[in-house]
Fold this protein.
Amino acid sequence: MCGVCGIVSYDGPPDLALLRRMTGRLGHRGPDGNGYYRDRRAALGHTRLAIIDTSGGAQPLCNEDGTVWVTFNGEIFNYVELGAVLRRRGHVFRTASDTEVIVHAWEEWREECFSRFNGQWAIALWDRRAERLVLSRDRLGVRPLFYIRRPAGLMFASEVKSIFADRSVERAFDPAGLDQTFTYWSPVAPRTVFRGIEQLEPGYYAILDRDGFRKAPYWRITFPEQGREPRQDVRENAGALRERIVEAARLRFLRSDVPVGAYLSGGLDSSVTAAVIARYTDAPLHTFSLRFSDSEFDEGHYQKKMSAVLGTQHEDIMVRPSDIAAVFPDVVRHAESPVLRAAPAPLFLLSKLVRENGYKVVVTGEGADEVLAGYDLFREARVRLFWSRDPGSAKRTRAAELLYPWMARSPGRMPAFARSFFGRRLDPDDPALSHRPRWDSTSVIKSMLSPDLRDAMGRAGAEDVVAAMPHGSEDWDPLSRAQWLEMTTLLAGYILASQGDRMLMANSVEGRFPFLDRDVVDFASELPARHKLFGLEEKYLLKRAFADLVPDDIIHRPKQPYRAPDAASFFAEGRPAWFGEVMAERAIAAAGVFEPSLVTGLLAKCARADGENMSNTDNMRVLAIVSTQLTHECFIAGDGWGMPERPLPAPSVAVDLATDDRSAP
């Protein structure tokens, strides 16, 4: 894991001082070294978190004759196999790093190389002879890659704060990006919440040269036609799924030159990955968990049980609401976007615990819910589809009472509310039937917006993600359509970003995700829906595949998604001073996103209840307002960094061909 940045300028040499400022803002992503390359058209920057070939592999790195350069963030897990193929074809390697495989793979296969990679990456390649920049992002968006197009070129970086090192870049909210955030929980690539700044879509590569800027997918999320799935035997599928997950977990644990730990939440997914590592590798395993002082969120019992079963060295951190409030400004500064839940904050604290214990790589269970249908949303969608086929049936309406059994105010305890909420917009022909309740309830945030922003959103016309669904998706199983929507919106934009990469890299920790392995994802997409969601039993095939490795009471425990105390954290005793500052009427008015009088009324309502027993709607409103205000304060009103600029250590790679000066200490 690393930080990457760069400048392409066709009207003169890029500014090296600017590149170094951009690089300095990515120091948390790579504290082990930094470097740069510059010629008369391009400059590449890099900060390194050394994991593979720690003594070599410094970046930017080039091919044999120095005509192709790369700056790279991530891991190519099949680099050993690809390197062997490339050596047989005559390529000469100077390092044992996965980075060098990228350079030679580009020389050998051009754009086709990306479909050969199995990993998680954000790549920038510069071809000196062609004066061509190539950007690429992994299939599902594990690693971020932002860019801004300029009249004579382009700037790119792992994080927006790096681009904002250029003081000429406009710092303003994008109304369409905010519109998507307050609907889908995050902007959908290529949108961001900042005007003029885009993100490369997952599964895409982009090219910039004298002919202009263009991009294309090298991979897409896809599913077979309903009833024509090629894999129908449940026993064979369970065995094949196990083989792929075992190999994916082994690759992510063993292909590292530094120790690798694992998150252990107490749920099925992280229990499977930890159990696979314990069974199929010889290395000792160190596991890390989140605990909560509020028993509604705590899963400590299951964490301790799984750790004892596997014999891991185990560490945990107890998180209180006051801890969430204390770190929330740092969380938003790293997330670089409004967030509608406080859940990233405990993960920020967890990655800090990992780093303090001497680890900079962890394996986690992210992705299993999307790939193998684990979310309650998928169960909800099946109930709603069943209900929509006979809306007047009294028996079918009661199916909603089976949903969300882990909630204190579950539909089973509030049947009248369940019928009202889940019974809206029951159109069986709607391709987004699965997501309408979430999107509708999230969009209530927009009732708090200022009139000017509502008008701007109307003029901007945010893209409708449903309109972007692939041709032929109407023939998929409804579960497959729901999975596509979840992977396209929440997974890439929130789970892997605000909760994932940003909270890990804030403390210089790399996350690795076996369930998002190329072969696991491609295999799972070919499974019949019933092997993923059997009736209302989620992740059916995963449970069957690993029943011998995971205790039965974890395999069959009621699904409890990762959650954390939310808005109540800001109304607890000892509320930090920053909250009053960013939520003051003058600060709300200055940001121009929300209507100050409505915010004042909402805060008074929540204060009267001491933040307790807030509705889901008010809870989400508070989080949206607080995080948007912090985003504005740091990135728009502020300098886009929020910390003092610090000089970089001496670079490990320093190549400046714009002045014909080259050194590589």
Observations:
- The longest helix spans residues 478-505.
- The chain has a mean pLDDT of 93.
